[in-house]
Specification:
- The chain has 324 residues and is α/β, with parallel strands linked by helices.
- The protein contains 11 helices and 13 strands.
- The chain has 2 domains: 6-121 and 305-319, ATPase, nucleotide binding domain (Nucleotidyltransferase, domain 5), CATH 3.30.420; 130-302, Nucleotidyltransferase, domain 5.
- The protein has a 5-stranded mixed sheet, sandwiched between helices. Strands 11-10-9-12-13 form a 5-stranded mixed sheet, with helices on one face.
- Helix 5 crosses helix 7 (222-230), helix 5 runs antiparallel to helix 8 (234-258) and helix 8 packs across helix 9.
- The termini are close together.
Length: 324
């Protein structure tokens, strides 16, 4: 990418679509954000994406934009830019998103899974810079995962690789949103952390969370649990420790399986700091092959909410390199 041209990076979430221009150093500007909450159809979501991209392109001048990289939830066929299925996005089944956007925007487009896009961003200019083998885990509404081996995203046999959140950490555990029992996502995602705190309160355990939620456990959030844990609340600390421990079980297993150099952990839950990271390391020391663990680092993500934007743009340049 020449210095005076940019790629528009797009990050589609369940609530908003965000766009920004990304230059060849990973620097971003001209942010645009539009709501997609309440969209009733695939067409409504696509229209918002097109509008968001168009506004960002107009901010730069369309002659400066060489392409668009999109990060979207769901299972992606990267070669065709097709969204096979996207949870929580209405009607996104076998959707030829790349073709649709190229037709409407009249500019090249590449599509990537949102977790993969975030990993590509962290690998390029974030916490994973200079590392060849890394695994990114994002703790948010779900538990997202992406694997980079030999500097390449590992997609698996049909594009479904890297689903760290759906590794089993407890036999016959809580039923996950995917329908399987005992997934990591059912214990370490933000909603799962809040759910476990609510369960403790309903069982009659005393906690400052009872006061904070005015007696209504349904209002408890993972941020409240993390804050209460930092302030020494035993119930909240137990919930956070449980999430960190099961995350550590998954990290240790992946360490033994893939021998990465680095785990990058992102999402709002990492603001809990050692409440999450200490039990992760406890389980690594307990379970991981010591030779693999001896080179391992586990660090917070560096790019925050911009990782997906930056990675989606980087994926475009990797997929469609400029002529030399």
């Amino acid at each position: 990418m020449t210095q005076d041209r940019v790629v528009i990076g797009v990050d589609l979430g369940g609530t908003n679509v965000r766009c920004a221009g990304v230059d060849d150093k990973g620097r971003i500007s001209h942010h645009t954000k539009l709501s997609v909450a309440g969209s009733a159809s695939a067409e409504a979501v696509v229209a918002r994406i097109v509008d968001c991209i168009s506004r960002t392109m107009d901010g730069y001048g369309r002659n400066r934009v060489m392409g668009v990289g999109v990060g979207t939830p769901g299972l992606i066929i990267a070669e065709t830019g097709t969204v096979v299925y996207a949870p929580n996005v209405p009607g996104w089944t076998d959707l030829p998103l790349r073709d649709i956007l190229e037709e409407r925007l009249k500019i090249p487009v590449e599509i990537e899974n949102d977790a993969n896009a975030a990993a590509i961003g962290e690998h390029w200019v974030g916490a994973g810079r200079g590392v060849r083998h890394l695994i990114c885990i994002t703790l948010g509404t779900g538990v997202g995962g992406a694997i980079i081996l030999n500097d390449q995203i590992w997609r698996g046999a049909n594009g479904a690789g890297g689903e760290v959140g759906h590794t089993t950490v407890i036999e016959d555990g809580v039923i996950c949103g995917c329908g399987a029992p005992g997934c990591l996502e059912a214990y370490a995602s933000a909603p799962a952390i809040a759910r476990q705190a609510r369960e403790a309160l309903r069982a009659g355990v005393q906690s400052r969370l009872t006061t904070w939620c005015d007696g209504n456990p349904e209002t408890i959030t993972s941020a409240m649990v993390a804050q209460a844990a930092e302030e020494g609340d035993p119930v909240a600390q137990a919930v956070m420790h449980r999430a960190g421990t099961l995350l550590g079980v998954a990290v240790a297993s992946l360490t033994n399986l893939l021998n990465p150099e680095l785990f990058v952990i992102g999402g709002g839950v990492i603001n809990a700091g050692d409440l999450i990271f200490k039990p992760i390391w406890d389980e690594i020391h307990r379970r991981a092959y010591k030779w693999s663990a001896s080179i391992l680092r586990v660090v917070p993500a560096a790019l925050g909410d911009d990782a997906g934007l930056i990675g989606a743009a980087r994926n475009f340049t990797l997929s469609r390199p400029s002529p030399s």
